[in-house]
Amino acid sequence: MALETLATTAASITLTTGEMLELQPGTNQVLTRLDGWFSPAGTRRNSTERLWAHGTFSERGWRDQRIITVGGHIFTATRSEAAAMTDDLAAALADGTAGKFIVNDADLGYREATVYISGTPDVIWDGNLDIHFMIDMVAPDPRKYGELLTARTPASAPGGGLVFDLFTGDNAGVLDFGGAGTPGTATLENVGTADTAPVFTVSGMAPGFTITETTTGARLVYSETVAEGQTLVMNAADGSVLLDGYADRSAYLTRREWTRIPGKTRQTYLFESPGNSGASLTLGARPAWW
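Structure for Minor tail protein, as requested:
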């Protein structure tokens, strides 16, 4: 389902689910409400009273789910278009499954959230050409995510060294240190304000491997072989380890020190796989905002 271009000239809004909803060509839309999107989600805190003392114990807070309300006024060219639009709006997220709510702003850029319908949508049709609507949604993850960024690296490999005997044969008059090595590092920057979870994709022949976050030393150690032509994806958001998109291989992740990339921060990961043949790591992450 795509609820498109409900916006001013500076931004467009899309609601995407498994169904199909498109505003017909020639339809005019005016966005009248977009609550809960630009403001941050609320914070929840549990407090424990101090026994026989003033105040409570200090406990950290956590962001709550995001509540989004989008409303607008649609002017259609014909009554038949208006009638069809009422059906489309009533079907928005109607099956209760998740969809994507996307706001693409001229200055802020592309940002999306996974949403579910909340409450009862209002679709008010005057029986002619005008429709007013309002849809309440809830995003369990309060972050707003940008488009996917990726960085790729082959596994680290040593460089050459001094060739002995020195200053003999083809090496006369020079010190030959051989070819350069491969650092095996990939770096991504989260330009947003919220932390985001990286996704690690390993392909090529790797007889086990280690991925190390270079600042903290946190490691992911995988003990099984990734064969040529296979792809292993490890997602820090949910801790999943999937081979070729469906086979669970989490049992072979013998060390799992998951990390997240904080907002306004860049992180570098080192990929090591002794004995590999053409193995590579693709690091992916979406910038996130509160």
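The chain has two domains: 12-45+61-142, 149-289.
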